[in-house]
From TrEMBL:
It catalyses: 2 a mycocerosyl-[mycocerosic acid synthase] + a phenolphthiocerol = a dimycocerosyl phenolphthiocerol + 2 holo-[mycocerosic acid synthase]; 2 a mycocerosyl-[mycocerosic acid synthase] + a phthiocerol = a dimycocerosyl phthiocerol + 2 holo-[mycocerosic acid synthase]; 2 a mycocerosyl-[mycocerosic acid synthase] + a phthiodiolone = a dimycocerosyl phthiodiolone + 2 holo-[mycocerosic acid synthase]. It is an enzyme of class 2 (transferase). Its EC number is 2.3.1.282. This is Phthiocerol/phthiodiolone dimycocerosyl transferase. The keyword Transport does not apply. One of its GO terms (molecular function) is acyltransferase activity. Keywords: Acyltransferase, Transferase. Residues 218-375 form the Phthiocerol/phthiodiolone dimycocerosyl transferase C-terminal domain. The lineage of its organism: Bacteria, Bacillati, Actinomycetota, Actinomycetes, Pseudonocardiales.
Amino acid sequence: MINRPLSPAERWYWLCDQLSPLNCIVRVHIAGAVSCADLERAAAGLVAEHPLLRVAVAAAPDGTRPRFVPVKDPRIPIRTVTAEDPGRWEREIDGVELVTPLATRSGPLARIVDIIHAPGSAQECHDLILTVSHIIADGTAVMEMLRRLLELAAGTPSPEPHDPLPPPEAMLPRWIKGVPRTLQTVAWAVADQIATAIARPRRLVPDTPVPAERRRTRLVHRELDAEQLDRLVSRCKREGLTVHSALTATMAIAVAGEDARCVTLGSPVDFRAELVRPVGSRDLGSYVATVPSHIRIGPLWATARRAQRDLNRRTRFGQHLALISMLRFMTPPSVGRSARTIAMVDRMGPGNVCLSNLGRFPFPDRVGEWDVSGIQPVAGLSISGLLVAVVITSHSALSWNFSYIEGALIRERAERIADRAVEILLSSIGG
């Protein structure tokens, strides 16, 4: 049972979510019949396995001192939709799951949507959408939760329940939390601000300022097929670069437009393996920190090299761990006292434009009697930035889902950036 105060990072995600939904979402396509009883049994199995699916968040009357509290009878709600349109999953995520908050006060902090096509026929198939609060999970954890949901629905026996884990900050290496490291981090931040002032990187400017409490995330979906993906991987190998660096450079160039020489772009870094008690991908919790890079714009592959060097340098220094550690000084005590922090995030936060690449994810092609395909992770933005792209390589395709703040970016602009990014990438690999 979990009954404890939220850690600084958890409190920050909780504050964001109160202003605007901060949801992590994953969709998968299932060929075959899936009964409601199968899903209900699987959802109950997930709840039994994960202590963080048996909590809600309670706070003092003035909105301070939030804490996880146990839920008496936690059940993940399942919403059923019958549809003929195979693209209905995209509209459900865009119009419902991204903009509807989870029930943090009553729990559990997850929900399921089952979109049924051709029910009762030989062509029956399902689009399954799992939405989880970023307070208790990141993209990797939600992917693993969805995989586990399918396994349980297919009849895989449930293992022993997971033991509750401490919050992420409690498992950081001791060296990252000491006074010398704090002073070094401050010195790094000052030096980085000086370098930023010299480089004058462009940040994405909103079309219209949108107050924090009115920000809603919307979706633009793009995808590379198997042939395009193979060409991209082959070209990156020839260049001696990661796919992430190529995607980062592509997005930076697309955002920069014609006149920017330098762009700030954030990269979420997974730190599970760096904790004192290493955490597995199936353990719930948010184990990512967004590291900003100031990327000088030029030809794609030269830009990608600069992006890769900058991110490697920052992670070697431990900037991602330092950012998590410093949240204890930066997270406001309540929404009512968060205005200054929100203004700072808008002005200089690392998530203004962000690329989250989950890499090659080994999601199964078959679970039980079902063929499985089309895995799609999508991120809610809340107040953390204006545009984020979540990328995953799975099922012989590269999915590229752009989330943006409605109004702050008009849809035509968000689509233009997404299309330009794909066009730049394909033209560079002979597509």
